[in-house]
Amino acid sequence: MAKLEARNIGKQFMAVQGSNTKLITAVKGINLSIEDGQFVCLVGPSGCGKTTFLNILAGLDKPTEGEVILDGHPVNETGPDRVMVFQENALFPWLKVVDNVEFGLKMAGIEKSKRHERAMHYLEMMQLTKFADAYTYQLSGGMKQRVAIARALAIDPEVLLMDEPFAALDSQTRDLLLVELQLIWARTKKTIAFITHNILESVVLGDKVVVFTKRPGTVKKEITVNYRRPRLPEDENLQPYYRQVIDAMKGEIISDKDDNDNNSDGVT
Ligand SMILES: Nc1ncnc2c1ncn2[C@@H]1O[C@H](COP(=O)(O)OP(=O)(O)OP(=O)(O)O)[C@@H](O)[C@H]1O
C-alpha cells in the first residue's frame, strides 16, 4: 500500500487582475503514489503548480477536486504526520537553535527533558551539537537549513515535504547537504516529497523523479532512478537519468510565465 497518494488532485484559484477576476487552474488531474520510505522529487517549469500540490499534500491548502490519502485514509488538514521544510527556513530568530528544534515538541505537549533529549538527538544527527545554544542569526544558510530539517525530523512525521529547501544555498553547501540528506534519509527511513528546480539535484536524491507539465500542472512522466547511494552530484553514471528528465521537460519550459493564462479555465 502506498504511504501517500494523490488521487485526481485539481486546484483552481480566483486571481484578481485589474478589475477582472480570473479562474486559474494551477494543477489538474494529478495522480501520484509515494511508497513508504520512498524519496520522490518533483520537477517542472516555474509556475506549474508544484508548491500548490505540495501545500495540498501538507493540508495547508484544500484541493478543488480529488483527495490525499495517507496510510489508506483521506487527510484534508495539516497534521504532525506531514511536515513541511521551506526554501527560506522559517526558524524563530529569538529562540536558540535547540529551542527551535524543540518548538514543535513543546506544542505537542511533550515534557521538557524528553523534548530536549529528542532535539539534541536530531541536532547530533545534523552535526549541529556544538551550535545548540547559538541563535539562528549566528549560523550560515546551510546550517539554518540543517536546523530546519532537524526540527522537522524531531516531530517524527510520517512524511517530510520539502519545498526547494536548498535553492537559496551556494553550490558547495548544497552539494554537501545533498549527501547529508541521503545519509539522514537512510537512517530515518522517512518518506520524502521534495520539490526542486535543479534537475541534477532531483536525480541525486530521488528514487523517482516526477516531471510536471506546464500549468495546469499534471504528471507528465515518472522516472525511476535505480542507482546506488549515497549518490554524488559529480557521478557521471547519473547522466542517463539526467537526460531522461531533461527530455521529459522539453516542451514544458515557456519563456513567459503569463503565457499560462491561455490555460486558464475561465474569466468572470
Ligand atoms: N493563492 C493563490 N491565488 C491565486 N493564484 C495562485 C495562488 N497560489 C498559486 N497561484 C498560481 O498558481 C500557479 C501555480 O503556482 P505554484 O507556486 O504552485 O507553482 P510552482 O510550480 O511552485 O512555481 P515555482 O516553480 O515558480 O515556485 C501560478 O500561476 C500561481 O500564480
Automatic annotation (TrEMBL):
Domain ABC transporter residues, every copy: 4-239
GO MF entries: ATP binding; ATP hydrolysis activity
PANTHER family on file: ALIPHATIC SULFONATES IMPORT ATP-BINDING PROTEIN SSUB, TAURINE IMPORT ATP-BINDING PROTEIN-RELATED
Organism, as annotated: Nitrososphaera gargensis (strain Ga9.2)
Keywords: ATP-binding, Nucleotide-binding, Transport
Keyword Zinc: no
Coiled coil: none
Protein name: ABC uptake transporter, ATP-binding protein
